[in-house]
């Protein structure tokens, strides 16, 4: 049974999708992405997040939440229709701070490389940071002194740029240790193939509504899980790890 959203508290000013801050019937607070985020965004969040969990990445806890239509009809906010009713993506709020440039050296090298390789695999260029600023979509749990990974709404980017990735990724310093080491590449390719064993399970837990652009479910999205599956499985060999392609 999905968590039921019982209160829309506020809305985040961060990120492209600006998730709503909501309370669930489990009394936990969630950053919720619904109609306004777009169906593709929700699909990317769910698939990439679950793949990340399969790999042991420190993904912030997430789940499918349900937004009752009665809650939307209360119109507690002028923009509440952008949340919409029905199944939505909820990421549980944690006591964290956004990863800053000064935090990077606190992150273990193995974790930096894991995140870098994962973003390359899922074609996620939306994790940038330098001394001039950026948007890392990474957070730091001050209490546990650990990295927290979230926001995969721009994964599986058909316009992914290898050059921009190498120049802008928050952990770009680890590029030589990944893209010039075939042993590391084979290590990650094996892990990714193992993670794909759960592909059907991940897709089968996606709400049916997310595969359609309209509430009547007559207009399917152009998100093709079969094409994506094959793309993700093609993670071995020089072609996949070629940063000049």
Structural class: alpha+beta
Q: Please tell me what the overall shape is.
A: globular
What is the level-2 CATH architecture name of the domain at 3-95? 2-Layer Sandwich
Unreliable stretches = none
Average pLDDT figure: 94
Q: Classify the beta-strand content into a percent band.
A: 15-25%
Helix content: 25-40%
Report the oligomer: single chain
Number of helices: 8
Q: What composes the largest sheet?
A: 5 strands, mixed, barrel
| N to C succession of SSEs | EEEHEHEEHEEHHHHH
Q: Which CATH class of the domain at 3-95 applies here?
A: Alpha Beta
- Kindly identify the CATH topology of the domain at 3-95: Phosphorylase Kinase, domain 1
Ends: how far apart?
Answer: 44 Å
InterPro entries: HipA_2
Protein name: HipA-like kinase domain-containing protein
Pfam families: HipA_2 (PF20613)
Organism: Massilia frigida
What does this structure look like?
The protein is an alpha+beta fold and 245 residues long. 31% of the residues lie in helices and 17% in strands. The chain has a domain of 93 residues: Phosphorylase Kinase, domain 1 (2-Layer Sandwich), CATH 3.30.200. The chain contains 8 helices and 8 strands, in the order βββαβαββαββααααα. The strands form 2 sheets. Strands 1-2-3-5-4 form a 5-stranded mixed barrel. A 3-stranded antiparallel beta sheet has the order 6-7-8, with no helix packed on it. The longest helix is centred in the first third of the chain and has 16 residues. The chain is globular and about 55 Å long. The model has no long low-confidence stretch (mean pLDDT 94).
């Amino acid at each position: 049974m999905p968590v039921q959203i019982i209160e829309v508290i506020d809305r985040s000013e961060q990120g492209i999708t600006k998730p709503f801050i909501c309370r669930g019937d489990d009394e936990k607070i969630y950053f919720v992405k619904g109609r306004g985020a777009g169906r593709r965004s929700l699909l990317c969040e769910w698939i990439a997040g679950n793949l990340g969990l399969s790999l042991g990445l420190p993904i912030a806890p997430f789940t499918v939440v349900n937004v009752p239509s009665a809650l939307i009809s209360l119109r507690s906010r002028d923009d509440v229709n952008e949340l919409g009713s029905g199944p939505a993506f909820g990421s549980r709020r944690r006591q964290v701070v956004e990863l800053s440039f000064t935090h990077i050296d606190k992150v273990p090298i193995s974790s930096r490389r894991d995140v870098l390789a994962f973003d390359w695999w899922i074609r996620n260029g939306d994790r940038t940071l330098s001394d001039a600023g950026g948007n890392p979509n990474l957070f730091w749990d001050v209490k546990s002194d650990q990295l927290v990974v979230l926001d995969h709404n721009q994964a599986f980017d058909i316009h992914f740029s290898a050059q921009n990735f190498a120049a802008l990724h928050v952990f770009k310093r680890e590029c030589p240790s990944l893209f010039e080491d075939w042993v590391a590449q084979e290590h990650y390719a094996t892990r990714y193939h193992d993670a794909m064993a759960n592909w059907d399970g991940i897709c089968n837990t996606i709400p049916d509504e997310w595969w359609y652009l309209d509430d009547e479910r007559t207009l399917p999205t152009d998100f093709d899980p079969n094409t994506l599956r094959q793309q993700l499985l093609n993670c071995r060999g020089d072609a996949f790890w070629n940063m000049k392609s």
